[in-house]
Amino acid sequence: MELIESRGWSETDTVICSSCVTDEALQEAVRAEGGDDPCDYCDETPVAPEGTAPFDVITELVVDGLRSEYEDPNQSMGWEGGYVGAITHDTWDLVWDLEITEIEKVHDDLLRAIQLDLWCQRDPYAATPTQALTWGWQGFRDYVKHRRRFTFLVQDDSTLDGAGSLPMHAVPSAVVNAVAESDLVITLPAGTEYWRARVHEPGESYETAADIGTPPDSLARDNRMSPKGIGAFYGASSAGGAQAEVGGYASPTQEASLGCFSTTVPLNVVDLRVPPSVPSLFASDRHLRPSRQFLHDFIADVTKVADPADSQYLEYVPTQVVAEHFRYELAGNVRGVLWQSSKGSDVTSCVLFIPSDEVADGSAVAPDALLVLDPASVTELAAPLKPA
Question: 8, 64, 189, 261 - which has most CB atoms within 10 Å?
Answer without folding.
Answer: 261
